[in-house]
Records
---
Amino acid sequence: MDERIKKTMKALRDNNIGGYYAEDKNKLLELISEFIKVGSIIGSGDSVTLEQTGVFEYLRKADYVFLDKHKKGLSSEEKREIYLKNFSADTFITGTNAITMNGELFNIDGNGSRVAPMIYGPKQVIVVVGKNKITKDVKEAIYRTRQIAAPLDAKRLHKNTPCVKLGYCIDCKNLDRICNDFVLISRQFIKNRIKVIIVDEVLGY
Ligand code: SF4
């Protein structure tokens, strides 16, 4: 296993956050099925990583109550209901914009519906992250999120922001701006409430 992954996993554990390793997508799904009890209520955050690894598909087919925010045709009121239900889910599963080698999670969010349940509510939070999102420290985590992840996300979401054309962030004041909540999770009171699975692959952005 890569030294950077080893160091990050140890640092997570020192922060009361579970650190787990998956060499590939199959091992990732195996770990997820171990962590989530049959019949559980599952909420999720928007995540290219979860899409690429087949986690969303798995959650839809397995024996869980999956609060699927990606269902076609949902109104904004129906989405809001799902976001509120996420707080009382048994498990919330999500990606992250960056993870530092000091065992911290950094995210930028548009309306807070992804970062809020990471902080409080669900009994268990599972974070899936590819090795490409490991950063040396918070400064590098913020840089990668603002300059790499956010412009690509704005493009994916068809936003009319300057970064979509430029390919980098200019800290816009655009009405479509997706960078509103800057959240650093550095430690947990409840040991292993957050479980991070680092996948030894390049995933998401
Ligand atoms: S602040 Fe604006 S320009 Fe910068 S990444 Fe976010 S949406 Fe794009």
---
Amino acid sequence: MSERSVTYCKRLTVKKEYDVIVCGGGVAGVAAAVSAAKNGCSTLLLEKSNILGGLGTLGLINLFVPMCNGRGKQIIFGLAEKWLRLSAELGFDTIPEDWKEGEPGKYTEQRYVQRYSPAIFAYQLTEEIVKCGADILFDCMAADPVMEGELCRGVITESKAGTEFYGCRMLIDTTGDCDVLRRGGIPTVTGENFFTFSAKMVTLDGCRRALEKNDIQHIYSGISGGGINLFGDGQPVDMPRWSGLSAEEVTDYIITNHLLILKQLKETNRKTREVVTTPGMPQFRTTAHLKADYSLKVADAYRHFDDSVCAINDFEHRDHLFEVPLRCLTRADYPNIITAGRSADGTGYGWDLLRVIPPAILTGQAAGEAASLALRTKRTVAAVDIRILQNNLEKENVMVHFPDEYVPEDKTVVIHGRNAAEIEGGHL
Ligand SMILES: Cc1cc2nc3c(=O)[nH]c(=O)nc-3n(C[C@H](O)[C@H](O)[C@H](O)COP(=O)(O)OP(=O)(O)OC[C@H]3O[C@@H](n4cnc5c(N)ncnc54)[C@H](O)[C@@H]3O)c2cc1C
């Protein structure tokens, strides 16, 4: 077989220069852009789809997982707290009774969660971006970063206008898959994804339920192709674990799931149900993250980090508390790139702890703050004055260190029925 190749290059003028470019408008990217713009940075947010929120809206994952320790103490604040409340203002309000007015001030095992309307929350994120003064380009793909050695000069974009170049002084990759940094040759770690695909449907039963309760949120139910949880329980043995990092794999995942859902629909009465929304992006949890200067592990439970940018709680299990070091988002050898959200560095379940919606918002917020502080103080983003960064985040209502009185006497960490001490490298 003959090996064929083509040469593809052209000279590009600089369309516009920004202090900060944020690639990917999921919850982490919006948080990063809002935070950078509020700090006075000229900021551009690039989003390849037509709505903001990523998996949290377009991907139909519409639940703020618990933001408390499972004993009535709130751990996650900052923009995550603000946006949880925002999402309940106009869309569905499913905040549990004990948490309606804020932290309960008493012991409760009710956890602080909120299931919201994905479309309305996406519109609210658009409003957040408009209000903060960042520029945004929808339908615009961040392709390759332009690197001069370890320094990023900006990003090549692909849009209706063709191939263009935007310059920046700081680049934040919040594509969820670390696509831009990966394409720039910056080291990343790839993951595996279980068989998960869920769409939203409306049924006559759901309509009756909503009418009975006089509350529209009850009309929805789910329909799944693959329905495998984050621990992979019940993953079919003959099913591949997708990396999610090639068009062929994504296509295979989509076709398999569409056909499975069609099969179920053929077995139901078409007059009783309608699929109202199908996910607009693959529901992959862990595709690729930056190989950063530190990787968060289960073994880091209850550990304080000097360079923590936020405290987070385990969303699946009570008590477990973590801090996220800035080093999970940065590499000291790259002066002006940082990541957040799904592509922050975690190992095994440590990655899961970081990637869910509330921590993704907080690491986004921290990335925007760190990028702007680095520019103001003429430092690299990994070497910002950590005390100033932490103070700035605390002023924005972020809990940087969890209080020691929240740490239980028994610090044994059991994840999904397995003692963490026995889990090699934090992998489940
Ligand atoms: C099946 C499943 C169930 C989950 N359940 C929950 C849950 O119940 N609660 C919870 O809190 N979390 C849950 N999560 C996790 C959570 O939804 C995500 O981890 C979180 O939303 C990630 O946010 P993000 O902003 O980091 O990335 P993403 O949501 O992936 O956003 C990335 C954004 O970047 C854009 N983008 C990508 N590449 C480019 C590019 N090259 N140029 C421009 N734009 C680009 C995408 O269009 C997208 O808008 C679940 C995830 C999955 C897959």
